[in-house]
Amino acid sequence: MKRYKCPTCLLEVFFESTSCVACGTGLGLDLVHRQMVPVTAAGGAAAADNPHRLCANAAHEACNCIVSSGSADIYCLSCRHNRTIPDLSVPENLAAWRNLELAKRQLFYSLLRWRLPLPTRTEDPERGLGFDFLADQTLSEGEIDKVLTGHDSGLITVNIAEADDAVREKMRTGMGEPYRTLLGHFRHEIGHYYWDRLVRDAGLTPQFRDIFGDESIDYAQALKNHYAAGPDPKWSESFISSYAATHPWEDFAETWAHYIHIVDSLETARWYGMAVDAAPAPGDASGTAVEFDPYGTATGLQAILDAWMPFTVALNSINRSMGQRDFYPFVLNDPVRLKLDFMHRLVRGEVG
């Protein structure tokens, strides 16, 4: 994620900012060009001297993006993919939806950096990307009809309870997931979508199977086995997470999400000029700095991982100093690195 500045006074602002605290300029996020611009009111017509207008969801404080210049759509590139939003007459749903939209915008930042296909359900009713944000429902008998977060033919469903930190933390602990985050959910589920688009539909299934295994094994039974017996005790030898060992599809989605975690975090480090001493010794001033664009087409995976690993050691140490669990509780062994390399080449169109 890059750093942002106010277009009027150049003060630093943030990805989610809606105004500059110094000069009061109203701000809109241009996701395509990765910059903050001055804006008109949400849904309003752009003035001649200010061609930028906010997404209609800014009226609910759920979005700070601008609508593409010249577009007749009232929604931004992220929000126009929504098929269902929560019932906003329920006060807590609005707060949850705002958190969901912020995480989704962060996801779209990465997808747009790689120029991945992003057709809406209107543009492609059968394979377009869409989102349903739904809440559990209490039935007349008092039973709870639970919403399952998941992906089905381009439609990503997210239970809005995942936007509640307390609920998500309880689920994280109960399910033994060291890194359950709202943004992680979006990155994982979009991985399933891009398996369909970039692997299956592109005829790359044989290359996928060489690395991840045969995805034709019974998916439902694999999930049943995982939840009944628990993860394979040797999962850490070949997988990035215990859930990745469930099925090749889940392995792909977990690795896909992890690849975005690494690349986007490194870009943040680059924009802040961070450097880590890779070989701490008296008088040794050598260090690791991110002097390349992690999203760039000319960047190799090895350079990304060489920069990433010293940062994880440092960040884990900082978290421990604060009494927090490790920022990065993962091991990148050779099988996992091979899978990350597949992701690296896939988003760049180099698998074939």
Question: What does this 3D model show about the protein?
Answer:
The chain is built from eight helices and twelve strands. The protein has helices at residues 91-113, 165-174, 182-200, 205-212, 219-229, 248-271, 301-321, 334-347, and strands at 4-5, 12-13, 27-30, 35-38, 82-84, 130-134, 137-138, 144-145, 150-152, 155-159, 275-276, 288-289. A four-stranded mixed beta sheet has the order 5-6-10-9, covered by helices on one side. Strands 1-2 form a two-stranded antiparallel sheet. A two-stranded antiparallel sheet has the order 3-4. Helix 1 (91-113) crosses helix 3 (182-200), helix 3 crosses helix 6 and helix 6 (248-271) packs across helix 8. It is globular and about 55 Å long. The model has no long low-confidence stretch (mean pLDDT 88).
What would the principal axes of the Cα set say about the shape?
A: globular
Distance between the termini: 29 Å
Question: What's the total number of strands?
Answer: 12
The radius of gyration computed from the alpha-carbon positions, rounded to a whole number of angstroms, is 21 Å
Mean pLDDT: 88
**Strand order within the widest beta sheet:** 5-6-10-9
| Class per helix and strand makeup | alpha+beta
Task: Break the fold down into its secondary structure elements and pairings.
Elements: E1 4-5, E2 12-13, E3 27-30, E4 35-38, E5 82-84, H1 91-113, E6 130-134, E7 137-138, E8 144-145, E9 150-152, E10 155-159, H2 165-174, H3 182-200, H4 205-212, H5 219-229, H6 248-271, E11 275-276, E12 288-289, H7 301-321, H8 334-347
Helix pairs in contact: 1-3, 3-6, 6-8
